[in-house]
Amino acid sequence: MKIVVDTNIIFSAMLNPSATIGQIIIYGQRQQQFEFFAPHLLKEEIKRHRNKIIEISKSIDEVTFEDIRDEVFRCVNFISEEQIPYNFWYDAIPMVRDTDMDDIAFIVLAEYLDARLWTGDKKLLAGLENYGYKRIITTEELLTMKFYGQ
Questions:
Q1: CATH number (domain holding residue 137)
Q2: 126-148 pLDDT per residue, tens
Q3: Which among 45, 57, 69, 98 is placed 20 to 30 Å from 132, CA to CA?
Q4: b/e map of 35-71 (b: 16 or more CB within 10 Å)?
């Protein structure tokens, strides 16, 4: 199953790779049950929030941050935003216009790949649900699939 992960999900996985979200990403990909994707901009967002991740975690130092980031990033296929045709971007504008235009690349990538979107952004989720967007998958659904082989 193709799944587009947003920055909130990767942020959570990096804060605690042994918790649920980290384990879904690491072991779901290793077991080839899930195929995770993200736009390249996610790498820049994680780089920009590096100090915040280290500060919040209270147990991650600079070296550990690099190790965790590398392990999580190995589980994600990064796609250049430039390779996605314009019509996908144009069609996604109404979906995020009233929530956060910064999230458009995740919606566009999910549409382009015919994938599900896994996000921890409650504001984005609410906006997409109000719009009638159906390509969302939750952590709970992923856990069910992981443990019950669905």
A1: 3.40.50.1010
A2: 889 888 898 999 999 888 876 54
A3: 45
A4: ebbbbebbbebbeebeeebbeeeeebeeeebeebbee
